TrEMBL record:
It comes from Paramecium pentaurelia. InterPro entries: Methyltransf_11. Residues 45-169 form the Methyltransferase type domain. CDD domains: AdoMet_MTases. This is Methyltransferase type 11 domain-containing protein. GO terms for molecular function: S-adenosylmethionine-dependent methyltransferase activity.
Length: 295
């Protein structure tokens, strides 16, 4: 898959993703704690999506600390900027997720209000960060991006390059497929109902922490800590599950025969019921890694 195709995919998924993003941001929250962002003088958020925790980082960081965020989806960049503009300008801060398309379209990425707090948001590709010089940042965060990109080792190399010696990296990727029903339920039901063929190629789920530890070691990172963490999703029924499905899946359903769609919906319901009987919400498992660039 080429980068332009992936960019378009994320552009079209941006609204849905930011609406449903509260669950995956919990992993990002863990990274922020583990990396002690309050002590950092310069932070970069790589593949920031809708910037769901940026307001938290802004409140927590030192006032002069530089905070840079980027995503390769232009829509994600604009949504993040519009959310943060609203957060920084409105008195009642409760509703920054309720931004209009007009607010998104008209947002100024170079707004003075961003400069005042040393915050910036831009478009960039995590694998080629030529716009940032070597040894620039104390903290590099990337939540749920490395498993989605064609060359994660190259992204890791770029992270290493732009971190200062002693700077800290924090990344998360999907963990075990069996513990991630929140993300697999649709695909499982699509395959069982005959709407989708069994996917070819390697899985994006990592069944062990070893490959990501090795990737960090290969790059020269030290003080590596790597662990799994599960997070519940508030997907209680078919409609909730649909809210998080990507545009490709919706397209498949739109074009499928009605009886297959019915079969698909029954299977989703069946899986939801099975999990409910175990008193278990749908989960997503992630592997988290924090590490330090050698001094
Ligand atoms: C699962 S979302 C995670 C977003 C955010 N970090 C969060 O915690 O919610 C993945 C994000 O990575 C972005 N992305 C994917 N490939 C990228 C690349 N090569 N460079 C930069 N961003 C990328 C997507 O546009 C999307 O916003």
């Amino acid at each position: 898959m080429n980068i332009e195709y992936l960019q378009k995919l994320w552009d079209s998924f941006s609204h849905k993703y930011t609406a449903a993003q509260k669950n995956p941001s919990v992993f990002c929250f863990t990274l922020l704690n583990m990396l002690r962002i309050e002590d950092s003088d310069s932070i970069i958020d790589a593949g920031c999506g809708g910037g769901h925790l940026h307001q938290y980082i802004i409140e927590k960081k030192k006032p002069y600390a530089r905070f840079v965020a980027f995503d390769f989806s232009n829509q994600m960049v604009k949504i993040t900027a519009a959310r943060m503009y609203k957060y920084l300008t409105q008195q009642q801060k409760g509703s920054i997720d309720q931004i209009t398309q007009e607010e998104i379209d008209n947002v100024n990425l170079n707004s003075e209000i961003f400069n005042q707090i040393n915050y910036s948001i831009q478009q960039a590709n995590i694998q080629e960060l030529n716009q940032f010089q070597d040894n620039t940042f104390d903290t590099y965060i990337s939540n749920l991006v490395f498993h989605l990109i064609p060359n994660p080792q190259q992204a890791m190399a770029e992270a290493y390059r732009i971190l200062k010696p002693g700077g800290r990296l924090g990344i998360t990727v999907w963990g075990s497929k069996n513990n991630s029903k929140a993300l697999t339920i649709y695909q499982e039901a699509l395959i069982k109902s005959g709407i989708l063929e069994q996917p070819q190629g390697p899985s994006k789920f990592l069944e062990s922490t070893q490959p990501i530890i090795e990737m960090a070691q290969l790059q020269g990172f030290t003080n590596i800590y790597c662990w799994t963490q599960q997070n519940p999703f508030d997907n209680y029924n078919l409609e909730d599950v649909g809210k998080f499905s990507n545009p490709e899946v919706l397209e498949l359903l739109k074009n499928a025969p009605q009886e297959k769609v019915q079969q698909f919906e029954n299977i989703v319901q069946e899986i939801l019921n099975q999990e409910k009987q175990k008193y278990q919400p749908l989960l997503l498992e992630c592997i988290l890694l924090v590490a330090t660039k050698a001094q």
